[in-house]
Amino acid sequence: MRRRADEVGLTEGFCWAENAVGTNGIGTPLVTGRPEYVYSAEHVVSVLHR
Question: Which partner from 13, 21, 47, 48 sits 20 to 30 angstroms from 40, CA to CA?
Fold first, then answer.
């Protein structure tokens, strides 16, 4: 699980801000202040498409 988390940046110090990695299910709610669902190709970062 830790290896899979590392593959997509779920580690301490990774920046999930939209201006750093684009639309994503972690950074987008921080900007909008509400829950968001971002699916597959909606993620700007290709490693998150799975």
Answer: 13
> Which residue has tokens 């987008």?
28
Which residue range(s) make up the domain with 38?
Answer: 2-48
User: DSSP H helical segments within the chain, as ranges?
Assistant: 2-7, 18-21, 27-32
- The rounded distance, in Å, linking the Cα atoms of 23 and 19 is 9
Q: Each residue of 7-18: pLDDT tens digit?
A: 777 888 888 887
Q: How far apart are alpha carbons 45 and 48 in whole angstroms?
A: 6
Per the structure, the count of domains in the chain is 1
- 1-50, pLDDT tens digit by residue? 888 888 777 888 888 887 887 787 888 888 889 998 887 777 666 666 66
Contact 31, 38 (CB under 8 A): no
